[in-house]
Amino acid sequence: MTNSLRPHGYQRTPLPQEAAPTPPTQRAEEPGQQASTPPAPSAAAGQQPKQRDAFFDNAKYLAIVLVAMAHSWEPLTDSSRTAEALYMVVYTFHMPAFIVISGYFSRSFDMRPDRLKRLITGVAVPYVIFEVAYTLFKRWADDDPTYDFSLLDPWYLTWFLIALFVWRLSTPLWKLVRWPIPLSLAVATLAAVSPDIGDDLDMQRVLQFLPFFVLGLCMKPEHFQMVRRRSVRIASVPIFACALVFAYWAAPRMTSVWFYHRDSVQELGAPPWTGPVMTLALFGCSVVLVSCFFAWVPRRHMWFTVLGAGTLYGYLLHGFLAKGSRFWGWFDHEWLHKPLGEITVTVIAASVVTVLCTPPVQRIFRFAMEPKMAWAFRKDPAEQARSRTTTAA
């Protein structure tokens, strides 16, 4: 079942800054934010920059809802085989979808100073802030005042930020090599059979999820058009149905910890030869289900499209409620483990994360998610030249 092997982890688990396509963006994408497209030279002359792509905002919002729903199902999986099957299926593709989107929008990333600044302010600083905030929350909510601070051991949802930071910095390397996806799969396989990697910076997850980021880097707009064809949409229905049936069969026979990509096969009690097998099998299953998910994402502007810009907020903020519900024993109530209770929990989780993605919440917490921090950086010569030109004009 969904037992966690390491208490700091999924009892430290985990999307979604983006955590989505048109052209690649400069802004760091966590499970939620889609940065605006870098303006063309003509934009500086007064033309409007390119608009956000509704498809990707829709995809990010729907994915973050699935993240929150899956977290609400986790306490129910020991008593409900159906909840366990749904949990396994959703975990197969919800974070891979976020990571593919993040990789796609990282295609233009290089070591240019402005992009490094955005990486620091949009990923590294929120990581530090929320790592500290989650630790303080655990000390208070779980009545554990001696719980240690550790920036080297990401707690619960913050693993994604440190992973995105590492992936982003490695982007120039993946753009340089000839076969990036096979190479990234080889790295993930080696990580899966290397228990000595340890817990620092959650490197098992960083390396085992790496192929999805590299896949996003290699994707082009036409690839997203392919998965949105009507034939793919029709085929995705029986594929998802088969995935649910298989998950229902597998639920009592395997642990969901495989889908967290947090442990080596030795730590899962499996022989080393299962490392390559499970790495490739899970990657293949995830890619198929991510494609099916993208096939059903609406292309047009929807009522929730605007929320796609705030999914990082929903991702990080809902963690306090997700963990607090465990600390405070909310799931001890018997009726929550009945079908009606499970539906209620699902609706509440989807509603809460939706609220947390709204513009008012973004405005309140922007200081932590997207700090400007101009005081912390030197102006590069190009910026200074532009500033002098503007002043002279």
Automatic annotation (TrEMBL):
GO terms for molecular function: acyltransferase activity. Pfam families: Acyl_transf_3. Keywords: Acyltransferase, Membrane, Transferase, Transmembrane, Transmembrane helix. Residues 31-49 have a biased composition (Low complexity). The lineage of its organism: Bacteria, Bacillati, Actinomycetota, Actinomycetes, Kitasatosporales. The chain crosses the membrane at residues 55-73, 85-106, 118-137, 149-167, 231-251, 277-297, 304-323, 343-365. Residues 54-357 form the Acyltransferase domain. This is Acyltransferase family protein. PANTHER family: MEMBRANE-BOUND ACYLTRANSFERASE YKRP-RELATED. Residues 1-49 are annotated as: Disordered.
